[in-house]
Amino acid sequence: MLKDKIFMLVKEYYELHHRPAQIKKFIPGEDRINYAGRVFDEKEIINLVDSALDFWLTSEKYTEEFEKKLANFLGIRYCLLVNSGSSANLLAFMALTSPKLGDRRIKRGDEVITVAAAFPTTIAPIIQYGAVPVFVDILLPTYNIDVSKLESALSDKTKAVFLAHTLGNPFDMKTVKEFCDKHNLWLIEDNCDALGSRYFYNEEWRYTGSFGDIGTSSFYPPHHMTMGEGGAVYTNSPELKKILLSMRDWGRDCWCSSGKDNTCGKRFDWQLGELPYGYDHKYIYSHLGYNLKATDMQAAIGVAQLDKLPSFIEARKRNWKMLREELEDLSDVFILPESTPDSDPSWFGFLLTVRQEAGFTRDEIVVHLESHKIQTRMLFAGNLIKHPCFDEMRKSGEGFRVVANPILQSSNLLPNTDRIMNDTFFLGTFPGLGKEQIDYTIGIIDQFISNLSLRTK
Ligand SMILES: Cc1ncc(COP(=O)(O)O)c(C=O)c1O
Fold first, then answer.
1. Is residue 443 pLDDT above 70, yes or no?
2. In which band, very low, low, confident or very high, does the pLDDT at 259 lie, cut at 50, 70 and 90?
3. Which residues approach ligand 1 with their CB closer than 6 A?
4. What pLDDT was estimated at residue 411?
5. In which band, very low, low, confident or very high, does the pLDDT at 456 lie, cut at 50, 70 and 90?
6. Burial class of 165 by CB neighbour count within 10 A (0 to 12, 13 to 18, 19+)
7. Which of 121, 190, 292 to mutate to test the pocket of ligand 1 (most atoms within 8 A of CB)?
8. Does residue 239 have a pLDDT over 80?
9. How many Å apart are CA 79 and CA 74, to the nearest integer?
10. Using CA atoms, how far apart are residues 315 and 347, in angstroms rounded to an integer?
11. Are β-strands 401-402 and 132-136 bridged in parallel, bridged antiparallel, or unpaired?
12. Are 197 and 168 in contact (CB under 8 A)?
């Protein structure tokens, strides 16, 4: 009864403190248009308070529920909650280095095909481990890997392909998957920006993240759903699930959930490594692992967000479509985004590339939008190789490889990646936006273009 009282007060607090901002009428030019943000109601806060009152803190009922629900949503067998999307990528990659995978394991010096038009923590685990990212250029207007370069990226050291679905737009899964199958390569799908995107393959629609060996999610606030900080890895393989679990939880061999003992029924009957027979299984380490677990409080928020996910996905699609239709007549100055054939993207954002002949630069329009309180974002790193974190590797020319385009100068090996670094930005599509904010955004873009033509007359 006490809990019910608390929950009623929480609802009241939500109605008084949070709801007014959420239903407030949009005032053009006065209210800021964010590109992303948390969308929630009292249910997230009630779950959070419920888990705080339970005070178990580490993973428990909400974590179990969240993992099951997300796996069901994606149509995948196993899902593990982690503390961020970056942790999910680290875990996904490191799982593939497990000695348990025998000859297929990724070893130091092995190569992983990816793109430099990326978020840094898709690439970081590859380099941190001592494997070699092999960068392939992307294609506009899908902003995903140019699959025609896959065969030339291949070497006898290639072990995996690790790619994100750029801002929700699935990469050419058919070609990538068939390439991986043909050459016996692992496929990791960084699904952090694409939760709810679908791809049509083998006569059926499936969610992205469920095609590769391992998929990853992020639940940082700008993403499709949030728990503040949080992430997930998912797989259909029992073997990979076991490795992921071990590496997430300190590298241990034991799979008891938090607070449980002797799930295996033979806690003191194992003999592994060179340990004495019967050494406590709870403290046997089959991997050099991490602790990447999230808390039950994060999962509690996630459970409430998952119920809203289908409506979030629909809102993102609706907003993207509105922007796409309204901006169609500016296709002479912008390259407008296109969804990948056979895909149904759940958009993270709306990408625009300023055409070379547009008569203005990306930075000029971005400053104009920002000065009118419309938030913009770059396509993450643009070209990751050009960042200070690559200074040393660029100088030495070691630690990474770029798939050369034979007809281009060596200084410009990834022309489209450089192009997005210079000319591309994106606008928000998140469910907190609606027609009013989008109409205002279009108006400000139109105003910028007409001022420009007045200037040039
Ligand atoms: C494609 C991609 N991968 C990974 C991440 C990292 O997720 P997190 O911020 O939860 O660490 C992000 C973050 O936005 C991302 O966009």
1. yes
2. confident
3. 84-86, 89, 119, 121-122, 164, 190, 192-193, 218, 220, 231
4. 58
5. low
6. buried
7. 121
8. yes
9. 9
10. 9
11. parallel
12. yes
